[in-house]
Design a protein that fits this description.
single chain; mainly alpha; two-stranded antiparallel ribbon; 2 strands
Length: about 130
């Protein structure tokens, strides 16, 4: 059983998304392995601040070209679309928790590249936003 002080600490960490922040920053460090990690972390925290102020995507391991590659892997026959199941599985695998259940094309079971990338980009933006969002 947690003490009141431990519960207070856990609530604080959860409220301010400290664990998610540290996990994201650590992942970025391992991925990029910068020569000067302190400068790198400061830069990423500044990007996060700009993201919070402007709503643009913050620091992320996935670029636009990465999303194109993921889509191409899911569409090896170059049909120009993927199924809803592929879309949902890919976004979940990327760590996106709240997947749009009704993206454009869901009724035809044909999710186009731009819809996939739009949903992935927005989902990743929300995932990388280790601050309270509207």
């Amino acid at each position: 059983m947690a003490t009141p002080r431990e519960k207070e600490a856990a609530d604080y960490l959860q409220k301010h998304k400290i664990v998610e922040l540290i996990e994201n920053l650590t992942s970025l460090l391992f991925f990029y392995r910068p020569e000067n990690p302190r400068e790198f972390l400061i830069e990423k925290l500044e990007e996060l601040k700009v993201s919070k102020q402007t709503g643009v995507q913050g620091p992320s391991l996935f670029s636009d070209s990465n999303l194109d590659i993921i889509f191409d892997i899911l569409d090896p026959a170059d049909e120009k679309h993927i199924t809803y199941a592929q879309y949902k599985h890919a976004l979940t695998t990327l760590g996106i928790k709240n997947v749009n259940e009704c993206p454009e094309g869901v009724n035809e079971d044909k999710i186009l590249r731009e819809m996939f990338k739009t949903e992935a980009t927005e989902g990743l933006r929300k995932c990388s936003a280790t601050y309270e969002q509207p």
